[in-house]
Structures are given as C-alpha cells and as structure tokens.
Amino acid sequence: MNTDLVKVVRAAYFAGEKHSKQRRGDLEETPYINHPLELASILVDEGQIDSVDVICAALLHDTIEDTDTSIEELISQFGPKIGGIVAEVSNNMNLDSASRKVQELACIPNLSIEAKLVKLADKIANIRDVSTMPPVGWTLDKKKSYFDFALEVAKSAKDASPRLFEVFVNDYQHLKID
Ligand code: ZN
Predict the structure, then answer these.
(1) Cα 10 to middle of ligand 1, angstroms
(2) How many H helices and E strands in the chain?
(3) Could you tell me which of 139, 146, 98, 94 has the C-alpha nearest to residue 122?
(4) Which of 39, 108, 133, 134 has the fewest C-beta atoms under 10 angstroms from its C-beta?
C-alpha cells in the first residue's frame, strides 16, 4: 500500500467525522468540512505543495480548535510531525477574538515552514469565503478588517511559499466585498 495515500485518506476521513455536525456561518450553512478540504486543494493545486504532512495537517487544522480532538489523539493517529503542525496553527480559544488575532499574528514568524504553508492556505480560503459566502451578519467594515488582518498574516508567512503569497495578494486585490 502507498502509505502516503493511506495517511491522506485517513486524515480526510478523521476530519470529516470530527466536523460532521458543524456548519459554516454563511447563509447556506455550508458543511464545515468544505473548509479544510479547500485548504488541501489550494496547497496542492495552487501552491504545488506535495508534502503529505502539510496536506494532512491542512485537513486536520481546525480539529483541535473546533472539535473535541486533543493533540495527543492527533499524535497517536498521525504521528508527532502532523500533530505538531496542527498544534502550531491552533489558536488559543480561551482568548477573546481580538486578543486571539493579536496572538496569531505575533506567533507567525516562529512557526515552522509547514505551519506557515497551512496558514497561507487558510487565509486564502478565508478571504475567498468572506467575499463569496460571508458569515451572516458581518458588516462591510468587519469584512475589510478581516482582509487586512489576513494580509498581515500572509506577509508574515510569505517566506514559506512566495507562490502562495502571490495567490493571496492577487485575491486580496481582486476579490469583491460589499
Ligand atoms: Zn481554517
């Protein structure tokens, strides 16, 4: 068996199970799992990233933050490398959203290359979603300030993939928000 393929399928299935009851905040209540799948697709198709650890971590990136998954569980299922990347990109959910953003931004320079790649793909996916399927109730100001926050994160993570940073900047400049 191709062990890389097995790992990716297991990570996708694990994330699907963990997020199965969750929906995004948009009007259509899109299934949550679409988001980690979008990251994996951005990394592979637009970033030309073929690291299995990065793709698996992208699929799993919100399981610690948003589900009952523990870091120990990820390490036992997927090993310390993938578990470590997910831990690196997980925000401290005990903080309020403003402090969380400050902390997220401050931590980026110290992240591993793998974690920065996940962050870049996350911000690309997030600004696309804010443009095309925004969370219900978000004002224009909130959308604009999210775009600017995402730009700061992307700038900080740029060295991991100039190609993905370029994808981000292109979206940042061309996506419409209203
Ligand atoms: Zn995310």
Answers:
(1) 19
(2) 9, 0
(3) 146
(4) 133
pLDDT at position 5: 96
* Catalytic site includes residue 65: yes
**How many whole angstroms from 125 Cα to the centroid of ligand 1?**
8
Query: How many residues in total does the chain contain?
Result: 178
Choose the catalytic residue: 4, 26, 46, 66: 66
Comparing CA positions, the residue from 113, 108, 151, 117 lying closest to residue 43 is 117
| pLDDT at 18 (0 to 100) | 98
Over residues 126-153, the mean pLDDT reads 96
Amino acid identity at 115: A
- What pLDDT digit, counting tens, does each position of 11-21 carry? 999 999 999 99
Task: Please tell me the distance from the alpha carbon of residue 167 to that of residue 59, in angstroms, as a whole number.
Answer: 20
Q: What's the pTM?
A: 0.96
104 is catalytic: no
Report d(CA 78, CA 164) in Å as an integer. Answer: 25
- pLDDT (tens digit per residue) in 79-128: 999 999 999 999 888 899 899 999 999 999 999 999 999 999 999 999 99
State in Å: Cα 39 to ligand 1 middle.
8
d(CA 62, ligand 1 centre) in Å: 6
Per-residue pLDDT at 148: 96
- Helix orientation angle between 52-60 and 113-132, rounded to the nearest 10 degrees: 50
